[in-house]
Amino acid sequence: xxIPKELSRYLIPAxxxxxxxxxxxxxxLEPILSTIAGLILVLFVxxxxxxxxxxxxxxxWLAVFLRLAERVFAWRHEVFLATNSRLMxxxxxxxxxxxxxxxxxxTDMRYDRSLTGQIFGYxxxxxxxxxxxxxxxxxxxxxxxxxxxxxxxxxxxAPNQKxxxxxxxxxxxGSRVPISEPERAWWxxx
Length: 190
Description:
The chain has 190 residues and is of the alpha+beta class. It is built from 4 helices and 7 strands; from the N terminus they run E-H-H-E-E-E-E-H-E-E-H. It has helices at 29-47, 52-77, 115-120, 145-156, and strands spanning 17-21, 79-83, 86-91, 97-102, 106-112, 122-129, 138-143. The strands form 2 sheets. The chain has a 4-stranded antiparallel sheet. Strands 5-6-7 form a 3-stranded antiparallel sheet. Strand 3 and strand 4 (97-102) form a beta hairpin. The longest helix has 26 residues, at 52-77. The protein is elongated, with a radius of gyration of 25 Å.
């Protein structure tokens, strides 16, 4: 997938893009099937004379077709991406919305795959942060979830290293919080 030029306005110059993707095509299945079923109904009514009923069915089918066109257009313009410092979902047609979760806020992540998800190759990412309700906590219909889960996990949970945003420098041992002990503590008394 080509990276949309629009993303440059949301990214910080130092951010490295891990992946950019659209939701799985399965999100379009119901509108496509509804449009096909409506077309079959139009053909059936037109084959039996029709008249006023045909005009009503045609208007209803046109509404269903326009709904399909809107869904396809919205799907084409929605982007989910991961960078070395955050996850972003860019969506909306008239009003563009950008949902963001910083990688540093993610405390836990899982992905679920239903039976249809296993058959068609999509999953759901569920992100948790430290007691906060985030705008980006559930991302449905992620294609190739195993691969994308591993890419995100490599950034979030890099063992014995700082996160990718910190250029994968080995982390120091010990606490970064200064500890001050009283001079006359009970364990120092003789």
